[in-house]
Amino acid sequence: MTPTLRPMALADLPAVLVVERAAYFSPWAESHFRDSLRQDHECWVVVSNATLHGHGILSAVAHEGELLNLCIAPEAQGQGLGARLLAHLLDRARARDCDEVFLEVRDSNGAARRLYRRAGFQEIGRRRGYYPGPEGAEDARVLRRELA
What we know:
Layout: E1 4-7, H1 13-23, H2 30-38, E2 42-48, E3 51-61, E4 64-72, H3 81-95, E5 100-106, H4 110-118, E6 122-131, E7 138-146
Parallel strand pairs: 4-5
Antiparallel strand pairs: 1-2, 2-3, 3-4, 5-7, 6-7
C-alpha cells in the first residue's frame, strides 16, 4: 500500500513517540507534541497499512513558517517519505500565507541536510552548541527557503 499523509491526532502520539525515540538522540517529549496539536500547528503523519512511518510539524505565524520537527523511522528512511512529507508541509505553509520557512538541522545529519538542499533551502547561519549529543553539544545549521 502506498503511504498516505494525514493530520496527526492525539491517538497517534504513542506511535509518534516510538518513531521519535528511534530516530533521535534527544527526542521531543510527549508534551511537545501535545502543545503543537493544541497550538494549531500543522501536525502530519505518514502512514501505510496502519503503521506510522514518520511525522512532521510546522508552525506558521505572521507570514513565516518554522519546520519544528521532521522525523522518519530509521527503517523507513531512504524511501522518499521525508521528501514527500516536507513537500506537503511546504504546501501547508503556502496555504497559511507563509512567505518563507526556517528550520534548524544538526550539523552531523548529512542526509537531512541533503534533503533540505534538494528542497531549495539555503544555509543562513549557525547556532553553536544547539543540540545535545553523545559527545557534547553539537551545532545546528539554520536554513531558510522562500516560498514566493
